[in-house]
Protein 1
Amino acid sequence: MSYRIGVDVGGSFTDFAVFDETNGHLATLKVFSRPDEPGAEITAGLTALKARDGLDPATVGYFTHGTTVGVNTVIQRNGHDLALFTTRNFEDVLQIARLKIPQIHNLYSVRPEPLIPRDRVFGIAERTLATGEVLVSPEREDVAAAVDAARRAGCKGIVLGFLNAYRNPDNESAVKAMIGEFAPELPVFSSAETWPIIREYERTITAVISGYVQPRVSRYLDRFETVLRQEALTCPLLITKSNGGVMGIGEARHDCVQMILSGTASGVIGAGYLAKASGFDKILSLDIGGTSADVAVIIGGEP
């Protein structure tokens, strides 16, 4: 006997779907989520499934998990206090963004405040050309001064977002190594490592989001893995990605920005599957949770 389990942990409820591969039976279960004690809802759910359905965790051959812990951290703004090191004179990258306002016909509309406020953004004298040639290499004294300023501001981590780092990451790598010497207790998130794409704002904000949620997501995944192993699950533990795919729990800890919309993606894919199977080509899905509500347009089964 072998089971496949999918678990969706939301802000209010945690939902289990258990598929018995021997007879095709599908069982579901809903328990309260425990933001105060992550992992407790998994224990509660498995205990209930043992008592109700006779589930033996040791017979589980596939386990995948979707969670909203990443996106909820951004929405509730309770992530890591970060500093941003940018190329000098590009310190306003998060404020300027793409110069677009949320409501194009409303001159009074404003963008949300950046996850890193302007007083925690520090310029580094460095420059890489669009060709990838390093024009100015960072100096140790300059980086040390920025690290000291970040510490005084109470920052618990540093994001690096240098101009053209997608083309040549050498300056970001050099500064990351220097920070490791000056402040080994501060985690560093490099934009060239997180998402090496051409657009400066998109690359920077992706690295910022990754660093902002990483500590909370990592702690959550640590607790999650510990609980499941204590419950005798021996199969690989998979996490749903924002694109609907899955990745291992170790990769999720390191590359947590890939799972920001983990739980959201799971709901959209499920709605798309049901819509296609039911013959509906154009639908809207609405997923209302305890923290956020997510809407998707699904055409031909594709979101």
Protein 2
Amino acid sequence: MNTSDTPGRAAVTPAVHREAVATETARLVAALDGADLSVPVPGCPGWTLRDLVVHTGRVQRLFSLLLSRRVQEPPRSREVELQLPADDSGWADWLTASAATAAGAFAGTDPDAPMWAWGADQHVRFWMRRMLFETLVHRTDAERAVGLRPVIDPALAADGVDEFLVNLPFAASFAPKTAHLRGSGETLRFRCTDRDADWLVRLRPDGFGLAPQAGEAAAGPADARVQAPAADLLLLLYGRLDRGAGAVETIGDEELLSHWFANSEF
């Protein structure tokens, strides 16, 4: 079964997303303690840990600005006041302040209010959910950069898989390779081995997207399958884990699998 009742609506609630943004930011801040901010970040080629912090805080502040304005059309500018710290000793406090800005934007904001979003769900809740997984994935990047082993809550991880697969068909403006995800009805099934959650993606001549999961389609065969614990599946989809990793199992059309992973970069 899919973790969503309808596209973009997951069993994990917006209230959980809001709280988890603060929690995940605090974990990222903890990873900075005593760290060399010039170290490279696995999963983000060309970035240092400092670059990662700047990006994460900027995203939180930008999304907070969009939320506070409840924009109804694509913004003309994505510039936002960053108030960067004067030196490296201030980055932890700066990132904590970014999360506080997000919390302020969340407060009193109805997650069901209509709002422009680049993804499937045109409501405030889209940005709450998107901010969480931007923060969570980059928290794991920071931990890996300083030699820590990331741990992800399985329920959040499964929700993140859903968020990724629901929104990927709308991401062509910044993920141009997704334009190559075309086909003639080929299907890929993604399954969490530690959660009751799976997704069926179908490639069509005009694009791709999640297929309805009802009746026989819910348990029927797929041309290729990818299954792993929810945390590993999330990191795999985001390119932070290789599909040859021990926790990941792939079955079926190898050419289709290669095509998917070569063109689904987010």
Protein 3
Amino acid sequence: MGDGVVPGLEVDRGIPSRLDRVPEAAATAEGHGYDGCWTGEIDHDPFLPLALASEHTTRLEIGTSIAVAFARNPMTVANIGWDLQAYSGGRFILGLGTQIRPHVEKRFSMPWSHPVRRMREFVTALHEIWSCWHDGAPLRFEGDFYTHTIMTPMFVPEPHPHGIPKIFIAAVGEAMTGMCGEVADGLLAHAFTTRRYLDQVTAPALLAGMERAGRSRNSFQVSCPVFVVTGQTAEDMDTAAVATRKQLAFYGSTPAYRGVLDLHGWGDLHTELHRLSRQGEWDVMGTLIDDDVLAAFTVVAPLDRVAAKLRERCDGVIDRVLPAFPAGVPDAAVSAVLRELRGLPAAAERSLP
């Protein structure tokens, strides 16, 4: 690749979900020139922070990455999505994921079955509900998992001119990825993803789904977090590498992500990581992530090479990147990387829209 920015590449970041931290984090992200910010469903609600993020920004796209679909039903999510789309002036992206069965059943006390079929139906139901509200179409949705057939005028929210939200779906396996290509507006790739996996598994499955639905890749976005190991000194980079190895070991121990390791011939690594995780040996697990594994999952580069390495990772497959910088990297250094990714001169940060 040359030194120009990847055409169409957007750069996003995560923001805290704790409400008192959201206004400053969102405003700072917009000031640095990020294109979007995302919240996750971990220890806080994923939607509430986005109302604040919207209020304290003017152009930043806001989204959930992810909200657990199966912890809710399409009607409640449709209401939240409608309101955030209206309040943000059309900047909301609804990012949905399935979570895993034990969490859905034992943490959220909700049913789990046929995740790909259920997610497809969830998205279809959302579109039917929004069509009812936006176009006045009768609500007559009857599926295998969800039924929505009552919508009297009292329960129709006020109209707004911003259209319906985009829907992104988190996907790793081929079946979910293909379904995403059929019905969604974007795909949320997992951080535990390599460029090889994107090229050989994600992209073919996604394009096959689009072909089945007669859709174009040009109207679709792939969003992907990318671990970044960098720093101002060699010691900083070593510290960042240790922390990242631990994160990768945690993900690598999870059976749902074994397929990524299998593609590289590292299936035995998953077996050992999973065994150690059941014993709580988290520090030991990190030492099993060697330099080859680290390089496959991570951009490892000094600060002045991070932007080029990120472009190389994204070119041709990732449309929105969330670079995960190590703690301690100065804001000025992050801003410099971001300016280079956006193809902006050094002083451009002060004049960003």
